[in-house]
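Design request, tokens follow.
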């Protein structure tokens, strides 16, 4: 299960880039990871050998159609979907969620209740608030505990009534890093006769996803957060997707999942997404020389994720311990040594008397890349009482090193002195 960090880093050309002789340190990963040669090679190969629209008679169009089928099979394995018909690929998580909100709203009657949370990215809040406004729905909010950084499950039970028809929750927070009990929420919503929509954007790069075990109805993530190109991918129950009214062209497909994927897709990015899945499988020990039409096994994808996870938990622990040792720094999230498996490696902090934007700029001068502000998690920042400033967010992933963590800790020590 040990990760060969030097071999891993050799697969990411961008990690070797320098600016003015100074190497880059990428801790901006929660907003988007770097991509491996598996991805760039697939994109290049597509343009050089397979570039065409789909569903025609000649060789390049047949290849494009085959790549679409292959990547959909790969993402079905990634999710443990029951069928490839349940995998919808779109431009982003947010775009897909707005489309689902439009499609689902006719299921609800005025006065029905929906639940959103104070721990979510706005991409899993605003679409549902707008749906509620259009349909006259009652919005309830599930808060998280500001001390434990977890959902209050007793409060969740109190929110439920016979009219509670929908809940939108996140698998892992893009601010606190908490991994949430979405399976328990989904099971309780199902027993109550409602649907559950899971934002797995922050969880997908770090953990194994099994929609069958979770019992949710929809789950969405973003490929560019797990070493792939800028695409969003949604899993939804077949019976729900099949019945959903949507806006579509007359000539567009009526079958699943094509009815949701309007217009010509960015086929080169689909090829790149397949490369990201091949990379997971390679890390997991599958030494196949993957071709453009090879589907990686779910076991290999998950083995790769688990190897990455061990490295990320260790880096997060090293980072959090180092930050907590510095004066005036508060970590917004789980910090115990035995709690690293209950959070992802996204670490958000506040520094007494220092503005997060200014700290991010000072780190950028050292070629250390981090994010600051609300990171689109408006309700999380508000619930934590952080005002307009937000947080400084540091996100190590498996290709980061102990030395890079030590470098940002050294920089932070200088900045808070």
């Amino acid at each position: 299960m040990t990760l060969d960090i030097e071999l891993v880093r050799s697969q990411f050309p961008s990690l070797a880039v320098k600016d003015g002789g100074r190497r880059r340190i990428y801790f901006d990963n929660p907003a988007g990871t770097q991509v491996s040669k598996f991805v760039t090679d697939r994109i290049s190969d597509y343009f050089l050998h397979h570039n065409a629209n789909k569903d025609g008679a000649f060789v390049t169009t047949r290849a494009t159609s085959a790549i679409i089928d292959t990547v959909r099979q790969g993402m079905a394995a990634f999710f443990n979907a029951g069928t490839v018909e349940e995998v919808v690929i779109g431009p982003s998580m947010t775009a897909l969620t707005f489309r689902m909100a439009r499609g689902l709203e006719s299921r609800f009657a005025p006065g029905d209740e929906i639940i959103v949370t104070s721990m979510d990215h706005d991409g899993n809040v605003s679409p549902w608030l707008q749906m509620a406004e259009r349909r006259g729905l009652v919005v309830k909010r599930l808060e998280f505990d500001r001390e434990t950084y977890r959902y209050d499950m007793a409060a969740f039970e109190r929110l439920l009534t016979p009219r509670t028809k929908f809940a939108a929750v996140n698998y892992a927070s893009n601010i606190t890093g908490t991994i949430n009990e979405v399976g328990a929420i989904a099971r309780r919503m199902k027993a109550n006769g409602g649907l559950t929509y899971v934002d797995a954007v922050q969880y997908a790069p770090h953990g194994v996803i099994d929609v069958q075990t979770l019992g949710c109805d929809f789950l969405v993530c973003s490929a560019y957060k797990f070493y792939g190109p800028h695409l969003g991918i949604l899993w939804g129950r077949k019976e729900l997707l099949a019945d959903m009214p949507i806006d579509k062209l007359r000539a567009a497909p009526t079958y699943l999942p094509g009815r949701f994927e309007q217009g010509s897709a960015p086929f080169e990015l689909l090829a790149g997404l397949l490369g990201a899945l091949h990379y997971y499988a390679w890390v997991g020990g599958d030494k196949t020389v993957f071709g453009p039409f090879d589907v990686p096994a779910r076991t290999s994808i998950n083995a790769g994720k688990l190897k990455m996870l061990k490295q990320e938990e260790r880096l997060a622990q090293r980072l959090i311990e180092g930050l907590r040792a510095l004066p005036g720094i508060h970590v917004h999230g789980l910090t115990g040594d035995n709690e690293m498996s209950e959070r992802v490696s996204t670490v958000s902090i506040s520094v007494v008397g220092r503005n997060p934007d200014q700290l991010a700029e000072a780190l950028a001068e050292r070629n250390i890349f981090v994010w600051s502000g609300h990171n689109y998690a408006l309700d999380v920042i508000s619930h934590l009482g952080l005002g307009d400033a937000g947080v400084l967010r540091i996100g190590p992933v498996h290709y980061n090193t102990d030395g890079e963590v030590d470098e940002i800790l050294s920089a932070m020590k200088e900045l808070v002195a």
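Comment from the thread starter after seeing the answer: thanks! DSSP finds 14 helices and 15 strands in the chain.
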